[in-house]
Structures are given as structure tokens and as C-alpha cells.
């Protein structure tokens, strides 16, 4: 006998050997948290945090005119209410959005007055655009179609160090490089060439000596540069062995021969000159720092011009803008804008976090996450680390490590698009400010919000990451919202992506599913978030672990990002534990980075929360997954999403225990908003008298079309008088049964030869499967027609169609529209329409028809909507939309 627990889901016999430590999180939380955080819709304007939409507006404003007499300040923004409900938007083919309004303050300053007194302050609310609103189930309705914004997996901003194999030219067989990659702005790269000369490169343009970059930062002289990187020691010139062939750390002035610059090697000629000039002591670079090591001295010697800061800035400008006339002022502004202006260069919080982590082991010297431009110290430490790495003591970065790859979720993607629109708007406002009369101008006269609307429309309509939602079944829907894509703007290109970036990496464990990925050219570039994974504030994927102290497993759960996890040794979820939480085995196989060492129980730091945390939701639905080959499991995971909703859904006899969770979080079922008693039930609605003595009415969705033409239908599973609690299932949706996911049917399969009928890939099917409608499914197709005003006159929807028999019109009502419930076949008329036609010479047949039917047959032709070939079925719904009437008739 079936049993149900208090939330209405079927009770199942649980054979799992491990206790449930952690509940699965809300499976579409990734989408909701990100977008609601971006909008901060429910937060009062004065309490909004400085990120998302609020952060972008604070970044762009205030906008000051070129003359400096007008300042436009941002006060706050407000979001209105949606004009139509989600259902109405789908029916009317409109976008589900809310009006966005800015309040801006225009301050006019009197420049002629010495104190620059404020002449006037004008504040005004300006309508900006309609901004799409996310529905409760994590989707957007754009022009009537349900869309999903897929999260993008991209390279994290920050600093990274790499080594390239070059056995042919480099004496060390390797060439070392450093890259400072911002969130927005110019890339800065440093690399050694085959002669151990260090070069800098900006935005992959022509390279120049790294010392020129240092001089541009204000470290003009060779002395200063050497002092930054190396210790110096003072030695007596008389001690020949200690002086000869060493490098000068400080300039030496000779009476007969001028200055000798720091960095030069003290050869025999120079040594003799020092003795001749009666120089007693010299400062040399500490030999321990540079001997038999790759160092900066050859670069300093090669760049022997010893220019000033200004010369270095001019040199960089010439490399970046060859052929353009250069002035010192232009070059200075250009250089400052490149790395030190927050409007042009942004490391982002993530970039600053990564730089702090890599280059500042001493936490007290780290910059705060709000410092999002480069500092001189960042560049110096990057060069020091590169030198350290070249000499074999640093650690190079793995760009496929999840500490160096992060997720840009929907909120961040829309924020970036919004910024593009605002920057275009800012340019327009500046131009307009110089043309308006400040006496009469209002903020609306200088603000043009079209670029914002255009940027948002372009993103939601055409961006590679804004996708038509896969709505074949609830699992397909859920998986689409949890998908991670390395493609899209700012991401990888499938034609150029190599094997490494597609391959499974040890940091994917518990974060990204190693099984679920497409089989085609996108293999490894598109994947799915693991079951327990979540995305932190910086965009890194975290996975939960149980803390283990001195061999005792606690119930404290810590979420760790990939770079944090590298420091720990982690045991498997199925490691034996006694009643007191002690690890039973003294030596356990554990994970540490990419290795699987055998370690004592006391050395274990963490333990997995569940064996399921490795895989995605789709893969976790496969029973006995551990016995499957990974390639076949991949196919199974992908094929579950292709299962169409059946007329009679049936939950699996053997499940994995998460079927109910997928059904709940996909939001295809109707759940009780409040506790109460069922008052009335029929196929279309359920009425519940709740505990507050109010009537809750739940209208069920009947035979609606999904994006993939499968049907969406809800069936009540409660009866009159039944007591409900909050969250209980009232009605099943497509592919669910009694609150559980039901993608197929429980059928018995025999693996045996049967008289040759099942030779190779043929199979024999019991006829009862057909008779009982076991695998019958319903598909809903939509056909539409428009009646327009033409040059020859108005088109008309009518039953009065020329040259059509009464038999062909039998399913049409008086208005010429097919009736609901009519069974139609290919060629049948769905909507009768006549359209005016131009005058032409009549044929004898037409003359005869005109004589019989009068003038009607002459001036119109049949343009009716017919059932196309191959389609047949029953009409389930009709919608009529009219421009002249605001109401919708059903």
C-alpha cells in the first residue's frame, strides 16, 4: 500500500548506508539570488548596498560638463509594478518587466563668481526603460517567450604566472611570464626573452623594457630600481677579489670620465679607474642575490638611456599609439587612465582578492577589496614574484584550476550590459550639457535613456547566454537554469578551445559535474553545477564539507572554494564512522589537491557530506550510478532531459531519493501557500479554506504549450475535506506523480533472444503498452493568423468564404473561428479569412460564379488559416487579440 508523508510525497524505503548530513539547497537559488541582488527591488532606496544596479549608477554619476558649470548627480532609482502578469505576458507576446525610473539632481554653478556659488538645483524623476523582471521560477519572459540566462564560467581577473617550454632558445628550457588581468581595462604582461631580458607589454601591443614601466611609475634611476629589488653591500676598493666582476649598486662619479651608472659590471678597466680616482669604497649588489640567478641587471644595462619619468611615459605612449603626435600632457593622461583611473580600469573585488592572495602573504599590508585600481606596489611585487619563479622558488598558476575560474551569474551579466548603456548615455549627456541653456534646462532635456534600453534589449534578445528555455520536462528546465557555459562574450571560442580547458580537473570535485556535458563540439565547455554546490560573493564555486578534528567527525559544515580546499586533506563520505563520530580506520584513502594519499585519521581535516556531491542533479537521478561506465552515464544524464511528459506519469519504483526535490524546485506543481482544509476540487481549480478563515483559490494550468511544444497540464491530487499543511502538493504538473519526478514508466525488460525478432537493435514490445497508453504523450502546437488593413481594403475574419463547401466550414463558429473541442485534420480550416483582391479580367468560370453568388465572389480571395500537412488533433484553446479593444476574449 502506498504511504505518504505529511508533505504529500510518497514514503520510500531507504537503503542508503550513510546518514543524511546536509539537505540539498534550493536548486534554482543560483539564478534568483544573483538577479534579486542586482535589482535590490525590495530594499528601500536609502538602504541599498553599493553593488548591482545601485553600484553601476554610483560609478557613472556624477557627470560633470566639459566647462564644469553643470553637474548631474544620481539620487536614487525606483522600480514600479509589472503591467501584466506572467501568464498575460505569454499570451500577449510581451515582456514581463517593470518601469525603471531615476531621480537625478542637476546643479548649475556660476563659474564667473570667484567662489563658484551654486546658482540653481533642479531635481527630477526620469523614466529610463522597462527592465525585465525574473519570474518566481528563475526565468524571464521576453516577447512572450520564456528565456533563461545561463551562468558563464570565465577566467578570474587578478595576477597569474606561467612558464612556457622553450628548450630551443632559453638556456633554462623555460620562459616565464606574468599577467595582470583586470575585470575591465588594459592587460599588463611581463615576460623574459631568451637572453634573460625582461620586457613589458600592454594589451598585446609592441613590447618594451620592463624598466621603462618602472621609470614611468617614478623610479627614475638605475640606483632606485636596484634598491627596490636587491640588497647592496659596501666594500673597500682595495679588496680586489670582492670588487672585481661585481655589479655596482650606486652611481660612481669619476673625476676623469664622468659618472658610472649603477648596474655596470666592475671589470679590470673600471677597477683601475676607481683606484686612479682614489675612490676608497663602492656599493655593490649583494652577490648572493644575483649570482647564478635570473635577475634584472641585464635589463637595466640594456635600457641604458637612464631616462626620466616623463621620458618613460612618452616612450610607452609611442609604443601604444605609434605614428600619433605626442605631448607630455597627453601621454601622462593616457598612462594614468590605463591603470590608475577607476573609470577606465577596474580589477573588480575578485581581481583585488586574487592579487592580495598571491602577492601579499603579509595580511596587514594587503589593500582592501574596495581598492580596484593598480598600485605601484602591485607591479613591484608582480616583478619580484616573477624573478622568484624564474629562479625556481615560486609557484606557477594553473588556469584551469577553479581558484582561477569564476562564475558570472545573471545579475553580473546584466550589470555589465547596463554599464555599457550608461557609458554611452554619459557621452551623450556631456555633449548635450555644452549646448543647453542653463536658465531653462531641466534634467530631462539633457538625459537620453535610449542607449540603456538598447543595451538591455540587445542582451536579452540576442546574447549567446540568453537562451530559449528548454521546457521539454521539469528536469530539462532545472538543468538549464543550473548550466555553466565557458562560451559567450568574454569567454572561450569552441573552435579554438583546446583539450586542457575541456578536461576534468580535480578542483571540479563537488563543484561541477564531471559526467553531464554535451557530446558534440561543446564537450567540456558546457556543464552543470554539482548537487550541493553554491556560488559565493566573488563568483567562486564552493562545496560543503564536514569538519574533522583529531579523527572525530563533527556536524559542522564548511563551504570551501577550490583555492581554500587545496590546504586540506579530505576523506570520502563513506569512510566508516562509529556512534561517537570517530573515524574507525586508522589509515584512510583521502584527497589532497590532485593526489589520493593513504593518511592517518588524525591528519584528516574534512570529510565529504554525501557521495552525491560529486555529480549534478540529472546524474544523481540515475540509480546505481557507481556501476555505470562514465560515457553511458553521460548519455543517460542527457537523455533524461529529452523525455516528453506522458499522459499517465509514473514515478520510478527504484529511485535515488531526490525525485521529490527536483519536482519541488522546478515549480511545475501547485503547492499549498497556507495550511487549511480543501473546500472544493475540480479539474480546473482547487479551493482551500485556510487557517486564517480565508479562501485560497488555486487555478490549475490546463493543456498549455511549452517552449518545445510539449504539454503543460496540472492535475489535482487532493480530495474535498482533506487537511493540508503549508507546502503540501495540491496538484501534479507535467512529468510528476504524487510530488515526485516521473520521467518514464516502470516496465519489465527481458534480455533474451526471441525467435530472431530482436536481432541486433530490434526489440519486441508488448501490445498492452500501446493499449494502456503507457507511452502516449500529448503535443500542443500553436497556429496564428492576422487580419490587417491592406491598400485594397480591410482583411476580414469571417465564415463567409468564397468557393468553400459547407462541409469544410462545419467546425467554424459564426465568427469564422474553429470551435474548442473540434477534431481537425490536415487541410481543415482553422480560421476563415478573406482578403481583398485587385481588379483583373474575369474568366468565364468567375463570371458564372458571380452570376450565382452575386458580387461577393468578385472582390475577395480565400486566405484562411489551414491545418498544415502532418498535423492533426483537437483544438484546446483559442485566443483573440484586437488592437481596438483592450480586453482579451477567450
How would you describe this structure to a colleague?
The structure is a single chain. With 890 residues, the protein is of the alpha+beta class. The protein has 5 domains: 29-154 and 409-462, Rna Polymerase Beta Subunit, Chain: C,domain 2 (Alpha-Beta Complex); 158-219 and 305-390, Dna-directed Rna Polymerase Ii 140kd Polypeptide, Chain: B, domain 3; 474-620, Roll (Rna Polymerase Beta Subunit, Chain: C, domain 4); 628-741, OB fold (Dihydrolipoamide Acetyltransferase, E2P), CATH 2.40.50; 789-874, OB fold (Dihydrolipoamide Acetyltransferase, E2P) (Beta Barrel). Helices cover 24% and strands 23% of the residues. The strands form 15 sheets. Strands 21, 22, 23, 24, 25, 26 and 27 form a 7-stranded mixed sheet that branches. The protein is globular. The protein starts with 28 loop residues before the first helix and ends in a 16-residue tail after the last strand. Mean pLDDT is 89; it is low at 1-6 and 886-890.
Count of discrete alpha- or pi-helical segments spanning 4 or more residues: 25
Mean pLDDT: 89
What proportion of the residues is helical, as a percent range? Answer: 10-25%
* CATH architectural label of the largest domain: Alpha-Beta Complex
Radius of gyration: 36 Å
Beta-strand portion reads 15-25%
What's the domain count? 5
SSE blueprint and pairings:
Layout: H1 29-39, H2 52-60, E1 63-64, E2 70-79, H3 86-92, E3 97-109, E4 118-132, E5 140-142, E6 145-149, E7 151-155, E8 158-165, E9 174-181, E10 188-192, E11 198-202, E12 208-209, H4 210-216, H5 222-229, E13 232-236, H6 240-243, E14 252-254, E15 258-260, H7 268-276, E16 281-285, H8 287-290, H9 297-302, H10 309-320, H11 328-339, H12 348-359, H13 376-390, E17 405-408, H14 410-433, H15 443-446, H16 450-462, E18 466-468, H17 474-481, E19 483-485, H18 499-502, E20 526-528, E21 534-535, E22 541-549, E23 552-561, H19 562-565, E24 570-571, E25 587-591, E26 598-600, E27 606-608, H20 617-620, H21 630-640, H22 659-666, E28 670-671, E29 676-681, E30 685-690, E31 695-699, E32 704-705, E33 711-712, E34 715-716, E35 723-724, E36 729-732, E37 736-737, E38 740-741, H23 767-771, E39 789-790, E40 793-794, E41 796-797, E42 823-824, E43 829-831, E44 833-836, H24 844-853, H25 856-859, E45 860-862, E46 865-866, E47 873-874
Parallel strand pairs: 7-19, 24-27
Antiparallel strand pairs: 1-2, 2-3, 3-4, 5-6, 6-18, 7-17, 8-9, 9-10, 10-11, 11-12, 13-16, 14-15, 19-20, 21-22, 22-23, 22-27, 24-25, 25-26, 28-36, 29-30, 29-35, 30-31, 32-33, 34-36, 37-38, 39-40, 41-44, 42-47, 43-46, 44-45
Helix pairs in contact: 1-14, 2-14, 4-10, 10-11, 14-16, 17-22
Amino acid at each position: 500500500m502506498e504511504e505518504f508523508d505529511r508533505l504529500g510525497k510518497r514514503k520510500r524505503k531507504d537503503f542508503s548506508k550513510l546518514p543524511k548530513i546536509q539537505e540539498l539547497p534550493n536548486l534554482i537559488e543560483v539564478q534568483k539570488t544573483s538577479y534579486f541582488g542586482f535589482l535590490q527591488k525590495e530594499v528601500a532606496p536609502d538602504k541599498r548596498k553599493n553593488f548591482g544596479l545601485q553600484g553601476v549608477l554610483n560609478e557613472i554619476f556624477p557627470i560633470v560638463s566639459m566647462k564644469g558649470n553643470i553637474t548631474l548627480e544620481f539620487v536614487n532609482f525606483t522600480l514600479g509594478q509589472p503591467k501584466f502578469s506572467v501568464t498575460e505576458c505569454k499570451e500577449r507576446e510581451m515582456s514581463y518587466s517593470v518601469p525603471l525610473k531615476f531621480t537625478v539632481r542637476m546643479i548649475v554653478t556660476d563659474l564667473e563668481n570667484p567662489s563658484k556659488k551654486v546658482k540653481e538645483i533642479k531635481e527630477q524623476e526620469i523614466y529610463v526603460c522597462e527592465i525585465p523582471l525574473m519570474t518566481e521560477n528563475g526565468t524571464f519572459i521576453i516577447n512572450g517567450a520564456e528565456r533563461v540566462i545561463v551562468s558563464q564560467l570565465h577566467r578570474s581577473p587578478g595576477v597569474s604566472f606561467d612558464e612556457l617550454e622553450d628548450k630551443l632558445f632559453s638556456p633554462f628550457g623555460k620562459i616565464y611570464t606574468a599577467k595582470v588581468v583586470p575585470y575591465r581595462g588594459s592587460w599588463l604582461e611581463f615576460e623574459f626573452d631568451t637572453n634573460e631580458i625582461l620586457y613589458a607589454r600592454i594589451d598585446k601591443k609592441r613590447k618594451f623594457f620592463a624598466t621603462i614601466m618602472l621609470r614611468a611609475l617614478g623610479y627614475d634611476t638605475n640606483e632606485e630600481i636596484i634598491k627596490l629589488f636587491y640588497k647592496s653591500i659596501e666594500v673597500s676598493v682595495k679588496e680586489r677579489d670582492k670588487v672585481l666582476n661585481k655589479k655596482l649598486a650606486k652611481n660612481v662619479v669619476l673625476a676623469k670620465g664622468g659618472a658610472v651608472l649603477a648596474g655596470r659590471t666592475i671589470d679590470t678597466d673600471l677597477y683601475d679607474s676607481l683606484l686612479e680616482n682614489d675612490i676608497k669604497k663602492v656599493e655593490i649588489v649583494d652577490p648572493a642575490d644575483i649570482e647564478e640567478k635570473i635577475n634584472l641587471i641585464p635589463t637595466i644595462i640594456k635600457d641604458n638611456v637612464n631616462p626620466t619619468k616623463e621620458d618613460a611615459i612618452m616612450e610607452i605612449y609611442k609604443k601604444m599609439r605609434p605614428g600619433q603626435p605626442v605631448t607630455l600632457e597627453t601621454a601622462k593622461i593616457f598612462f594614468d587612465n590605463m591603470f590608475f583611473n577607476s573609470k577606465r580600469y577596474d580589477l573588480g573585488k575578485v581581481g583585488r582578492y586574487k592579487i592580495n592572495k598571491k602577492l601579499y602573504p603579509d595580511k596587514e599590508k594587503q589593500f582592501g577589496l574596495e581598492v580596484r585600481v593598480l598600485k605601484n606596489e602591485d607591479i613591484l611585487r608582480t616583478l619580484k614574484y616573477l624573478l622568484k619563479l624564474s629562479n625556481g622558488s615560486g609557484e606557477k598558476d594553473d588556469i584551469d584550476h577553479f581558484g582561477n575560474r569564476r562564475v558570472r551569474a545573471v545579475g553580473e551579466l546584466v550589470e555589465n550590459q547596463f554599464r555599457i548603456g550608461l557609458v554611452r548615455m554619459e557621452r551623450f549627456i556631456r555633449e548635450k550639457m555644452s549646448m543647453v541653456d542653463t536658465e531653462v534646462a531641466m534634467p530631462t532635456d539633457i538625459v537620453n535613456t535610449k542607449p540603456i534600453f538598447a543595451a538591455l534589449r540587445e542582451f536579452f534578445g540576442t546574447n549567446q547566454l540568453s537562451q530559449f528555455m528548454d521546457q521539454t520536462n521539469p528536469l530539462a528546465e532545472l538543468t538549464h537554469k543550473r548550466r555553466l557555459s565557458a562560451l559567450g562574450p568574454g569567454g572561450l571560442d569552441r573552435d579554438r578551445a583546446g583539450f586542457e580547458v575541456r578536461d576534468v580537473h580535480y578542483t571540479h570535485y563537488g563543484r561541477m559535474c564531471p559526467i553531464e556535458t554535451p557530446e558534440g563540439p561543446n564537450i567540456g565547455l558546457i556543464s552543470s553545477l554539482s548537487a550541493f554546490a553554491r556560488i559565493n560573493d566573488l563568483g567562486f564555486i564552493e562545496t560543503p564539507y564536514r569538519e574533522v578534528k583529531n579523527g572525530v567527525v563533527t556536524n559542522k559544515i564548511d563551504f570551501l572554494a577550490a583555492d581554500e580546499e587545496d590546504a586540506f586533506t579530505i576523506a570520502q563520505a563513506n569512510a566508516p564512522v562509529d556512534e561517537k563520530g570517530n573515524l574507525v580506520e586508522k589509515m584512510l584513502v583521502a584527497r589532497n589537491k590532485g593526489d589520493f594519499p593513504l593518511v592517518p585519521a588524525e591528519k584528516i581535516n574534512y570529510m565529504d557530506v554525501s557521495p552525491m556531491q560529486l555529480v549534478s542533479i540529472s546524474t544523481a537521478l540515475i540509480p546505481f550510478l557507481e556501476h555505470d561506465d562514465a560515457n553511458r552515464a553521460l548519455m543517460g544524464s542527457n537523455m533524461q532531459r529529452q523525455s516528453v511528459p506522458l499522459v499517465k506519469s509514473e514515478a520510478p519504483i527504484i529511485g535515488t531519493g531526490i525525485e521529490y526535490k527536483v519536482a519541488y524546485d522546478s515549480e511545475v506543481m501547485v503547492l499549498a501557500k497556507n495550511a487549511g482544509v480543501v473546500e472544493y476540487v475540480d479539474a480546473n481549480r482547487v479551493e482551500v479554506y485556510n487557517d486564517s478563515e480565508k479562501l485560497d483559490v488555486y487555478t490549475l494550468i490546463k493543456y498549455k504549450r511549452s517552449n518545445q511544444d510539449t504539454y503543460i497540464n496540472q492535475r489535482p491530487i487532493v480530495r474535498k475535506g482533506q487537511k493540508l499543511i503549508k507546502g503540501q502538493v495540491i496538484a501534479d504538473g507535467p512529468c510528476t506523480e504524487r510530488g515526485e519526478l516521473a520521467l518514464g514508466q516502470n516496465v519489465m525488460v527481458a534480455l533474451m533472444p526471441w525467435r530472431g525478432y530482436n536481432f541486433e537493435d530490434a526489440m519486441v514490445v508488448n501490445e498492452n503498452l500501446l493499449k494502456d497508453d503507457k507511452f502516449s504523450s500529448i503535443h500542443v502546437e500553436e497556429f496564428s493568423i492576422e487580419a490587417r488593413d491592406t491598400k485594397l481594403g480591410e482583411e476580414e475574419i469571417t465564415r463567409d468564404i468564397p468557393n468553400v463547401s459547407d462541409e469544410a466550414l462545419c467546425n467554424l463558429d459564426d465568427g469564422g473561428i474553429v470551435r474548442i473541442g473540434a477534431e481537425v485534420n490536415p487541410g481543415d480550416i482553422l480560421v476563415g479569412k478573406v482578403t481583398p483582391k485587385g481588379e483583373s479580367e474575369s474568366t468565364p468560370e468567375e463570371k458564372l460564379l458571380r452570376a450565382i453568388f452575386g458580387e461577393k465572389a468578385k472582390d475577395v480571395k480565400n486566405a484562411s488559416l489551414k491545418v498544415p500537412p502532418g498535423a492533426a488533433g483537437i483544438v484546446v484553446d483559442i485566443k483573440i487579440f484586437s488592437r481596438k479593444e483592450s480586453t482579451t476574449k477567450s
